[in-house]
Amino acid sequence: MRKQKGFSLIELLIVVAIILIIAAIAIPNLLRSRIAANDAAAASTIRTLNTSEVTYSTSYVDQGYADNFTKLGPNGTTCAAPLPSGACLIDNVLSATPNGPNPKGGHKYFLLLRTRCCRPHQRDRHNACRLQCGDHSCGVHGYCDLGLLAVA
Questions:
Q1: Is 74 exposed, middle or buried (0-12, 13-18, 19+ CB in 10 A)?
Q2: Per DSSP, what are the bridge partners of residue 112?
Q3: If residue 103 lies in a helix (H) or strand (E), which one and from where to where?
Q4: Distance between CA atoms of 18 and 2, rounded to whole angstroms?
Q5: What is the pLDDT, as a whole number, of residue 37?
Q6: Residue 75 and residue 88: Cα distance in Å, rounded?
Q7: Which residues contact 115 (CB under 8 A, 6 or more apart)?
Q8: Contact residues for 9 (Cβ-Cβ < 8 A; gap 6+)
């Protein structure tokens, strides 16, 4: 009798099937983890934007709240001496365009000014309401910050 070397076709198919079953179990869990991480990052970014707005309004009292993202970011300055036009409170990614969409971490962030607000504490000195939104293009939830009131 001749001795055969190697694996038979059935053995190889069984190994491939086992690998596919393991991948089918693992991949959805990894995707869920990524979506959860994107959602946590979006909530954190909205919190950072809210804190930046409050810091901006207390640092530059005569300016009120920043009406666009570029005022909160570096805006071409070195950040050695922050100015009202570039306060260096957020990073370059969020301050890329004045009112968005600024993509970061799977979400797109907008800064909208509204002329009407539901609550008086959401108004700035121009009687405009700030709404910072994270579009949930790569997550489960959308996050918005209505002035000082966070809604998730």
A1: middle
A2: 131
A3: strand 102-104
A4: 30
A5: 86
A6: 8
A7: 127, 128, 129
A8: none
List, run by run, the mean pLDDT of 10-residue segments along the chain (152 residues).
80 96 92 85 84 89 84 83 87 82 78 53 43 53 53 32
- Count of CB atoms situated within 10 Å of the CB of 82: 17
Q: Are 92 and 104 in contact (CB under 8 A)?
A: no
CB 19 within 8 A of CB 27: no
d(C-alpha 127, C-alpha 122), whole Å: 9
Q: Which pLDDT does position 145 carry in this prediction?
A: 62
Return the biggest CA–CA distance within the chain: 96
- Both tokens assigned to 44: 């954190």
pLDDT at residue 112, rounded to an integer: 66
Secondary structure letter of residue 149 according to DSSP: E
Of 139, 146, 142, residue with least CA distance to 112: 146
